[in-house]
Every structure is written in structure tokens, then in C-alpha cells.
Amino acid sequence: MDQKQIAGLLNEMTLEEKVAQLLQLTAHLHEGAEDKGQITGPKEEMGVTAEMVNASGSVLGLSGAASIIALQKSYMEKSRLGIPLLFMADVIHGFKTIFPIPLALGCSWDLGVAEKSAEIAAKESAVSGIHVTFAPMVDLVRDPRWGRVMETTGEDPYLNSLFARAFVRGYQGSNLAEDKDRLAACVKHFAAYGAAEGGRDYNTVDMSERQLREYYLPAYKAALEEGCEMVMASFNTVDGIPASGNEKLMRGILRDEWNFDGVLISDWASIREMIAHGAAEDDCEAAYRAIRAGVDIEMMTPCYVRHLPQLIESGRVDEELIDEAVLRVLQLKNKLGLFENPLRGADPNRERELLLCREHRKAAYEAAAKSCVLLKNNGVLPLKPESRVALIGPFADHEDILGWWSCVGEKEDAVKLGPALQERFTGKLSVTAGCGIDSMTAEQLEAATAAAREADVLVLALGEASDMSGEGGSRTDITLPEAQLELVRQLKRLGKPMAAVIFNGRPLDLNGLFDESDAVLEAWFPGTEGGAAVADILTGSVNPSGRLTMSFPQSVGQVPVYYNAFNTGRPMDPSKTGERYVSKYIDSPNEPLLPFGYGLSYTTFDYSGLTVSSDEMSAEQPLTVNVTVTNTGARAGVETVQLYIRDAVGEVVRPLRELKAFERIDLQPGECRTVTFTITEEQLRYHHSDLSFASDPGLFQVFVGPNSRDTLEGAFRLI
Ligand code: NOJ
Questions:
Q1: Which helix (DSSP H) or strand (DSSP E) does residue 567 occupy?
Q2: Does any ligand 1 atom lie closer than 6 A to the CB of residue 202?
Q3: Would you tell me how many other CB atoms lie within 10 Å of the CB of residue 439?
């Protein structure tokens, strides 16, 4: 349809038909069942009637080509004006073929991998009938207690922005109308959900506007610049106002400043939740605040359908606001080509062919292999082919490796570590659990100890159950569960070389494991092909190349601890341990256990000869930074060369380091390469106290190295 036809359609709609377009309900309700286990409760409690369900303009969480085709057909038969339903779902890190969790994908530092994962997720979902995914989630995170850190790519605004773009490109492609194998993307959660106080889910977010703009907003903006079609509002308050009713955020920043004219959807029941927040007295006031703030679609509560008509009749809300919202929804349906073809990509035959196909599994394998991060290695990895190995731990033979938000992925389809290692390992391998995720029996321990006694080397497979992270998965203690720590203690007594592989959704407090182990491999939740990828890394056919995108704290007491922090007026000098009145803890170092950007390889890299092309640069005259990286080990490997800068003096104080560029390079043993980075004035800009975005002349330090801590240094002046 052209714009005129869309406008004509809107003209023909009754007010009831319009508000119905602004309601989204789950498939369960459409199918006549209640939405089990969800916070909104049964239909009657929600205040949702059968008529509302039948008329609502979009559906959440249904998948499967046959079911979607059936529902779309019956809906279209009843639709007076022939307006098709939109089907949306949480396709977060894969649909049926599950990729590593986004935090793990971030650790690949490989944008191509992220884009590919989204492209494949889109293809599998689109043939299963879905039109929109509630992804990417690009919330900046600094607090690993928050279970949802697994959904994002980490603590850095620049890296998060690059990944946001890559995911959007992968999901949407370049032509949504033509390319039926793509989905519309919905960036979330706007805004700053990742800064929930204390890492407790849904909790208050409060920060200066400068902080918000400098660190938290860039990744959402990047997604929109890449053409992302939708935005989801967050659950939290921002400066005292729930995001879903926050005019300054939505109308102000999103619509007026950034010119976003796509659909803005609430989060699950978050319009009604303004009552619990204490920001609205009842559903009617909640609807009033949300529509004024610019939320178009209400997810899972009926405040809009029940109250917008009367708000318009009473003159409190202008019908134009509703028309704008409905128009955006119709335009999205049109952009997806739904008016011409309401079934779009839904195709049971292709669905059978594509879901979990060999090519998709291969891509999931590659992503997993690139996402694992080697955190420590005293030479015990890779395993020697002739060794006798005891694989011990709750994840030794466990399929719970997909992670939270694994859509229609099934654990049974996951390649488990035990069998994968058995296939690849030429030596002798035994597999025992030793304990459960958080329980241990005497028999389990006995069997594991007996197996360990027979072995030359122990490989422990430990971690969190997938429901210990994800939405509603906040923890105050982020160590491994006690039963697993006990297993480590018991096995340590045997005095054998010990490597640990950990499966988890957040940076953990590794006390009780890190010092006790000779090697630690962070596997995250690696997805469907996880066991295969981890086994290949353990046996050495894959050289690990992941780098952390979120700092690992020494203990939870340090949280939040992140690399791009400020210096304070009394920075601690680690060589002067006795000083009291400096910014430090008396019982812990200031530094995290493992910094942002960190990760080891089976080979070693040497950095030398950092040169800055000039002492001075200007807006017209960028400069280049060169560094030589040599593979000094005996095997080929991938190094992620990272460039950070520090603005020595700012009108507003500037972080100790900020990532500005990086390059992944592949080096053969003995090979050296000079990596060149260009620094432009644009990269030196920041938000000043008046919120203007500009650079300041003066001294800048530049750091290049394998992570944010161990770097070579240079300097230049911006004139
Ligand atoms: C709540 C979550 O916060 C959001 O990320 C998700 O997309 C919706 N539920 C829909 O499932």
C-alpha cells in the first residue's frame, strides 16, 4: 500500500478499531488458554475480555508456521478492514538453533558473528511465521548481580553500539518488504534498564542526564541509526518517572531529538505497573501518561483499550495522538508486506528444512568457539592427547547449556560436553557429575573422587543453572553454588592438575575456583553446539580467542567495578600500600580480578613499538597510532588489539580509559604485524556539563594492548 492508502485506511477505522491495534496479547489468550505463570494473571484479573483478544492488533510469543497461518487466517476472516495481525516474539540468541548468549557473543569481538547469528535467527523465525523480534537488548551493564547482563554485550558504550548495529543488520537485512527471511528488530529497553540499583531486577534507575547520554543512550541510538524499526520502553523509572510514562525520554529524546518514527511498545504490563510505581492512580491515569509519553502499543494489559476512548471523549487526550500511534503500527505492517501477504514468510515446508539445519548448527558452533574466553592457563590446556582425563561436574553431562531466553530451542538438541569430548579425545576419559548445581550426595562425591584418582588431569565442568540468570535472575552472591565449591575443595586435595570450564550467564565471583584451578575457561551459555566448541578448545583443535566485555570482580563487594571509571581526587598508588586516606578498600584491591578486554590464547602475543604519527592533531588533521604485534608462541592464534584513550583534562572529568577502536588479527607462529589505528577529533567528543557534545583541546593519552589493563602508552595534543 502507498501512504495515501494507509491514511485512507486509518480514516475508515472506528475509535474501537484503532485502540485495538494498540493492544498486544499473548498467543495463549488467542488460543483460549490462560497465560500460565505470568505476572499478569488470568484474563478476568487482567480485565481482558474475549472481544479484546479477538480484536487486538498484535500477538506475542506464538511461533510455528502452522499455528501462525491458522490464527492469521481466522483473524483476517473477521477483520472488517482486512488488517493483518503482527506476530512478535523474544528471539534473543537464536530461534531453534541457539547461539551463545549475547554477553558471550560480545566476547567474540566479532561483529560478523553477531550479524550472522541474528540473520539465522531471523530466517528460522520468519519461516515459522514471526514478524518482529524483541531484540537486540543493548542495555549497558556494570552490575553482574543483575541476571539480565546475559542479554547484552557488556559494559562499554562503543562496543555495545557496534554490536547493536550488527544485530539490527542481521535481523532486518536491507529490505524488509522484499526479504521474507528477515524480521523487524525492536531495540530495548529504553532506557538505562541495565543500571537497576543493586542489580535487583526492575529496580530504580537514577542518574544524571549527562551520564545517561554519555554511556547509556549511545547503543539505542546506534540501533536506530541502523534502521531498527521498533523500540521497547523499559520497566524502570528514569529520574523518578517510569520509562513507560516518561515524556522526556520518549517524546523528547526518542521522537523529537532522534526523529524516531517507528513503533514504540511498552514492556510486559509496564503501563499498568505505573500504579505500583506510584506514578498513576489507576489504569486510566496510567493509559493517559503512557500515550502522552509516546508509547504506541501496550503489551499485556488493557489500560489503552479500556480507557483511551473515554480519555478522548472527555477531551483529555487528543485523538490525533491515537491516530499517530495507529498509523505507525499500520506502517510497520505495511513495511513488512503484510497487507499484500498476511502470511509473509510462514512456510511449514521451509520450516522443516531450515530449523536446526546443518548450516545453522555450523554457524552456532563457530559463534560458540569464538565466544569462549580463556581466563587462566598454567599450561594444563590444551589437554594432552595421551592423558587420562576425568571430566567432573554438574555440566559434565548436562544439556542446560542454552541459557535463558532460548526461544523454541530444546535442550535435547544441545551437544553436551561429555559426549563431545568423548568423541574427540584419544586418551582415556571418564565422566562423572560429582554434584548437582547446588546439591551433593556422598555417592556423587565418592564416584567423582574415584574417577579423579584414576586420572592424570581433572576437567571440572561447573556453573550456574540457566535460570540463575536472565529476567528475574538477580543474585546477591555471585560465586559458584556451595556444593560446587565443595567439590573443588575435595578434588583439590588430590593434588592433580585441574582445569575448570564454567557455564554461566554473568561474570562470577571466582573465589574458591580461580586460585584452586590451573586453568579456567569461560564458556558462558554457549548454545546448541556448545559442547562441541568447548571440547574442541579443551583438546586444542580450536585456539580460544574470546575477550571479556564485562569485568570480573574480585568479590561482589566491589560491584559495580568497570574499566571506564574516573580517577577520583585521591587515586590509590598500588606501590604504597600503607596509605589510608586514598580511594581504596582496606580488604580488597580496587582492580577487578579480570579486566574488560581480557582473555588468553594457547599462543602468546608481544606488543612493541607504539608510535603516534604526530604530537598534535586537529579536527582537520587526524593522526595514526601504530603498534607491532608478534605471535611469540608455537601456534596460530587470533589477537584482539585494543586501543583506548584518556582525555587528561576535561571540563567534566573523563574516564581513565575508553575503548575507541580494535582489530582482530590472525597471526601464524612467529608472524608479526603492524596494526594502524586512525584517531579523529570526532572520537574525542563527550557530553559537557551543559550536555553539549564536543571535544576539548589538550593532552590525550593513548593506550594499545591485549586488554584494558596491560597496555603500551603514547600521547598527543588536540589543538
Ligand atoms: C519482559 C522483558 O523485559 C522483555 O525483554 C521481553 O521482550 C518481554 N517481557 C516480552 O516477553
A1: none
A2: no
A3: 12
Q: Is 152 found in the same domain as 70?
A: yes
Q: Are residues 631 and 505 in the same domain?
A: no
Instruction: Please state, for a pLDDT cut of 70, what percent of the chain lies above it.
Output: 99
User: Strands 637-647 and 658-667, how do they pair?
Assistant: antiparallel
CATH code of the domain containing 402: 3.40.50.1700
How many Å lie between the centroid of ligand 1 and the Cα of residue 133?
A: 10
pLDDT digits (tens, 9 = 90+) for 214-263: 999 999 999 999 999 999 999 999 999 999 999 999 999 999 999 999 99
Whether residue 336 is found in the same domain as residue 386? no
Mutate to test the pocket of ligand 1, among 62, 267, 297 (most ligand atoms within 8 A of CB): 267
Give the confidence band of 40 by pLDDT, cuts at 50, 70, 90: confident
CB 193 less than 6 A from any atom of ligand 1: no
Residue 137 Cα: closest atom of ligand 1: 5
Count structural domains, the chain.
3
Is the residue at 470 inside a domain?
yes
Are both 320 and 401 inside the same structural domain?
Answer: no
Distance 267 CA to ligand 1 centre (A): 6
Assigned domain for 593 exists = no
Residue 581 lies in a domain: no
Residue 37 scores a pLDDT above 60: no
Domain boundary among 323, 350, 377: 350
Integer CA distances (angstroms), 715 to 610, 611, 648, in order: 10, 9, 10
Which residues are within 8 A (CB) of 530 and not within 5 positions of it... i.e. 6 or more apart? Answer: 100, 368, 401, 402, 414, 415, 417, 503, 523
For residue 267 and ligand 1, the question of a CB distance below 6 A is answered with yes
Q: At which of 557, 586, 620 does a domain end? A: 557
Counting Cα atoms < 13 Å in the Cβ hemisphere of 10 gives 22
How does pLDDT run across 580-604, given as a tens digit for each residue?
999 999 999 999 999 999 999 999 9
Catalytic hit among 267, 283, 347, 397: 267
Secondary structure (3-state) at 430:
strand
Within this chain, do residues 181 and 265 fall inside the same structural domain, yes or no? yes
Lowest mean pLDDT among 39-43, 59-63, 270-274, 329-333: 39-43
Is position 283 annotated as part of the catalytic site?
A: no
pLDDT higher than threshold 80 for residue 697:
yes
Q: Is residue 35 over pLDDT 70? A: no
322-344: average pLDDT: 98
**Using CA atoms, how far apart are residues 556 and 143, in angstroms rounded to an integer?**
9
Q: The domain spanning residue 638 has which CATH number? A: 2.60.40.10
Specify whether 412 is located in the same domain as 344: no
Q: How far apart are CA 347 and CA 128, in angstroms?
A: 7
Atom number, ligand 1, closest to the C-alpha of residue 151: 5
Cβ atoms of residues 46 and 40 within 8 Å: yes
139 lines ligand 1 (CB under 6 A): no
* Cα 490 off chain centre by: 35
Which residue range(s) make up the domain with 193?
A: 19-32+49-350
Q: Does 148 contact ligand 1 (Cβ within 6 A)?
A: no
CATH of the domain at 136: 3.20.20.300
Same domain for 381 and 314: no
Alpha carbon 61 to chain centroid, angstroms:
19
Does residue 586 sit within a domain?
A: no
> Are 78 and 103 members of one domain?
yes
**383, 385, 683, 701, 714 from 616: Cα distances, Å:** 50, 54, 15, 12, 12
Detail the DSSP E strand segments found in 486-622. Answer: 498-503, 519-522, 605-612, 616-617
> Residue 290's pLDDT band (boundaries 50, 70, 90)?
very high
